[in-house]
Amino acid sequence: MTMKAKRRGIPLQVLLTGAIILSMLVLAASLLIQGYRGVEAAMVSAAGEAAAQLGITVNERIRRLLDPAQNTLRLLSYDRISQADNLSARLERLPVLVENLRANRTLSAVYIGYPNGEFLLVRALNAASVREKLKAPPKALYLVQSQTLDAQNVPQGEWRFYDDQLQLLQRLDMPDYHFDARQRGWYQEASASRTTVLTQPYVFFTTGEIGLTLAQRSVDGAAVIGMDASVNDLAEEMGDLRQTVHTELAVIDGHDTVIAYPDLSRLLVREGRKARLAKLGELGVPSLSRLAEIGGQPRMAQAYRVDGENWYGIWVPLASFASTQARVLISIPAAELLAGARATLLQQALWGGVLLLVLLLLGSLIGRRIARPLNQLTEQLGALAAFDFARPVGVNSRIAEVRELSQVLGGMSKTIRNFQGITLSLSRETRLDSMLADVLSRLVEATGVLGGAVYLLHEEENRLGLACAVNGEHYRQSLPIQGFDEKQLASLLDQALSGSGRHMEVALRNRSEELLGVLVLQLQEEGERRRKPRRPFRRFVEELSGAAAVAIETRQLIEAQQRLLDAIIKLLADAIDAKSPYTGGHCERVPQLADMLLQKAIDDRDRYADFAMSDADRYEFQIAAWLHDCGKITSPEYVVDKATKLETLYNRLHEVRMRFEVLWRDAEIDYWRGLAEGGDSAALGARRDAERQALQEDFAFVAQANVGGEFMKDEDIERLQRIGERRWLRHFDDRLGISHDEAARLVGVPAASLPAEERLLADKPEHCVPWGERKPPVDKDDPRNRWGFDMRLPPCASNYGELYNLGIRRGTLTDEERFKINEHIVQTLMMLSALPLPKHLKRVPTIAANHHEKMDGTGYPRRLAGEDMSIPERVMAIADIFEALTAADRPYKAPKTLSESLKILAFMARDRHVDSELFRLFVETGVYREYGEKFLRPDQLDAVDEKAMLAIVEAPARA
Asked: Residues in domain HAMP (predicted)?
């Protein structure tokens, strides 16, 4: 056979015959393999996988019943009820206990045992039989059983019945009610353990339910908290887990006591008025009893016979209960299980017959399909004639003539598409590197040259830099051009690219005929003699390069403008960070953290299937992130950096100290004056020393209050007022040397005659600085408010009152100063809204200014709710909070660790202050850890219990 015959392809007759024979062979092999594997899969499924998976499901459902109760118990271990030393204090926590019963229907009772023998139990009266047994009032839903000690340490029993609203319906003294929790196993085990203690399952005496007791010592060790959790739901759900109709399932402990069985009537054994759990032999299920006798390896299917019937059995150990020997027994009738395998085998035989028929019909249709490639080529050429260049031309065919025709037409179509793609790339692609790479690759493909490269001119470096290349491993990255004459450009490139084969160079010039770069095309070799490119080809390349040069110039200008804008934005952010040493780096770190979380949201197709962002959207978001605190440029530094309560531009505690010094000297002067007047030296000395001691203590108290480290109580405020009542004499005019603004605030205040008596600490009218014309338009009804602000405006712009500042309950900021800090977001929105932003940056003001809004609509400055904020805006809120929590450069707090910061964020997510779904994404994807390793100190990178953090979000929100 000649080479030409081989290229023509396979004869049609051989092709048809071979196809039919091959199809029949494939059919036979498929039926045999599928039949064998079907039976094998049925047996394996019956003997192992199905039963093992069933056991795992039972195990998981047991955990589903117990885990909520254990989580509830852990939360209660932190409750202050453990410290309550009387019944009234304990009843104050009744709503918390009742809410736990409501939230977890598997709980029947919650109780607390105290070391002195006192006891409190809250029981849910859900069943009518229980209410009848306890003689509860008609509307009673909860019973509180308590045992307290009277003054003689005699136990006093008491029952209280409450309705659904926790209104007391009936109170009963129960002198015969004596219950010593300390003698109970759950109390003793929990007292000696730091973890949750679970008892063996048993039948609850009061409710008749099957369950177990969970107990845990409170965190402070003052009490033991217990719960009764019902597992009746497990028995009800086990009926749905049967693999077949007559599958038997049971959960037993190490003593063959049945813990769960679908038929509760067979599970309970009555012995008089009491009930107990049945033994496995008493259950009356021979298949399960036989399986328990056989034992064997866990999770391994084993066959056995019972009463002449074949069974498959498996047992799976359970870690959900306290007993380590608890297990689930599963027995499946072999006849029912293998019935599916036989049906599958029959179905495969039917499918095999259908496949055989299809193959026979296929042979008759092959001939008709020979013409299909030709018809497709005809349609594709018609599309080209109709200027549809996007549609590809070419078909796959084993027929030689059709294949050759398809290749020729496909090459022509590819050339047209490349020319069209070059035009589109020049006009639409915004990124210079992407545009050059796309144009060059299409040009190389369209012209059929070996490769090519684009060099761009770097005037400041006197070189041509390689911008992109196709098949260009041999192109140099940089070509020096220092001192060259542009007329000698071709000669220079010939020398630089002498090892690159035959090539052609075309200069790229802008509208001013200035050199931008060079286009180099590597041409095909033509024997030993190198010819110059034909004139039409060169003219075409030069014309195309002119359009490319204009596009390069335009994109270089756009990129230069964008770099300038980015530099100005980052300059502003750096200026804000540099303004205060305590917020340095905030404007730089928040954009990076926000971008990390935003990328995770874009990648998560399950939660955010409808959320996507283009490159322009991402750039808009990054600009907003950099500018999110631009309003801080208007925030006074002494407020942002305020570390003590009396601090303004300096710490005014020094003034207060000097007044104490004056009173100290007054005490000394009074002593000597008394001596000079003939007074008793001892009495005068004692009075002076007492006065000085009082001054020392009072100043120490004022100084401590100035630090703001602890919460100020009412008695602390009252003591400040008493200290402020002390008087000292001022002998100098306090209106000399003051500013114009300060003097204006004293207008209308009469000047006191000298010497004037002054308070040691005072709130004076001039301390309140009015807003004047600087009043920001944040009131909802302010006609100037066109941004939708909704904030409470303090009555004064600033309040320098000494008692007012020292009386700050928490922290160091007054309401006026806190508003000044919060006002930065108002200024951010106003400043950014005033900019003539282009269309693709129109959302920058809202993205930047909404990161202090909350999902529940209680944020600021506009009280937007979650549905009013986009995903990028919610991302900004989480990033801003997390950075602030972990920042190590704040004077008023120590940096928090990862776990502390995430816990605070989790509570905020639970209370709908931030987006809970984004918080879950933040935790589950490890963004917090990635950010921490990059920006936080090593001592902040502690271990994080991610499940516990996510559990906080699922807990009920605070009222």
From this structure: 368-421
Please report the pLDDT score of residue 528 as a whole number.
39
What span, in angstroms and rounded, lies between the C-alpha atoms of 742 and 734?
Answer: 11
Cβ atoms of residues 588 and 879 within 8 Å: no
Please give the pLDDT value at position 297.
Answer: 76
CB 633 within 8 A of CB 833: no
pLDDT, mean of each 10-residue run, the chain (959 residues): 48 55 64 58 57 67 75 84 86 88 83 90 85 87 90 88 91 86 85 82 72 85 85 66 75 76 73 72 78 77 82 76 68 74 64 64 60 64 62 67 64 62 68 77 76 79 79 74 63 64 75 78 61 64 71 72 73 68 72 91 90 88 84 78 82 88 90 90 90 90 85 88 89 83 81 87 86 85 86 87 87 85 84 85 89 90 90 92 82 79 92 92 93 89 91 74
Whether the bond between 861 and the residue before it is cis, its omega within 30 degrees of 0, is: yes
Continuous segment of H or E residues that includes residue 826: helix 815-833
Q: Please state the domain extents for the chain.
A: 1-117+180-370, 373-416, 429-561, 580-642+812-954, 653-774
Cα R_g (the chain), whole angstroms: 43
Burial 600-626 (b: 16+ CB within 10 A, else e): bbeeeeeebeeeebeeeeebbbbbbbb
pTM above 0.70, yes or no: no
Q: CB burial class (10 A; 0-12, 13-18, 19+) of residue 259?
A: buried
Tokens of 512: 């001013």
**pLDDT for the residue 2:** 45
Tokens 């033509």 -> residue: 526
Q: Is 142 exposed, middle or buried (0-12, 13-18, 19+ CB in 10 A)?
A: buried
Distances (CA, A) of 190 to 62, 100, 195, 214, 893: 22, 20, 7, 9, 37
- What is the pLDDT at residue 482? 66
At 108 the pLDDT is 83
* Per-residue burial over 695-711, b = 16 or more CB atoms within 10 Å of its CB, e = otherwise: beebbeebbebbebeee
Is 577 strand, coil or helix?
Answer: helix
Q: Which amino acid is at 206?
A: T
Q: Quick one: three-class SS letters along 726-775?
A: CEEEECCCCCCCCCHHHHHHCCCCCCCCCCEEEECCCCCHHHEECCHHHC
> H-type helices in 392-534, by residue range?
400-428, 432-447, 489-496
Residue 698 contacts residue 761 (beta carbons within 8 Å): no
Cβ neighbors of 638 (< 8 A, separation 6 or more) are: 647, 648, 649
pLDDT of residue 538: 72
Q: Give the pairing of strands 727-730 and 309-317.
A: unpaired
Dihedral pair phi/psi, residue 660, rounded to 5°: -60, -40
Of 166, 170, 174, 126, which Cα lies nearest the Cα of 146?
Answer: 174
Please give the C-alpha separations between residue 447 and each of 405, 423, 442, 529, 541, in angstroms, as whole numbers: 20, 15, 8, 21, 9
Give the C-alpha separation, 672 to 685, whole Å: 9
Topology of the domain comprising 429-561: Beta-Lactamase (3.30.450)
| Amino acid identity for residue 126 in this structure | N
Residue 905 CA to residue 352 CA, distance in Å, equals 60
- Say if 1-117+180-370 and 429-561 have the same CATH topology: yes
User: Omega of the bond prior to 891 within 30 degrees of 0, cis?
Assistant: no
Class of domain 580-642+812-954: mainly alpha
Burial letters for 325-334: b for 16+ Cβ neighbours within 10 Å, e otherwise?
Answer: ebbbbbbbbb
pLDDT at 163: 92
Q: Could you give the CA distance from residue 586 to residue 563 in angstroms, rounded to a whole number?
A: 22
Q: How far apart are CA 605 and CA 933, in angstroms?
A: 26
Secondary-structure class of domain 1-117+180-370 per CATH: alpha beta
- The residues pairing with 203 across neighbouring beta strands, listed in sequence order, are 210
Structure tokens, 928: 């917090």
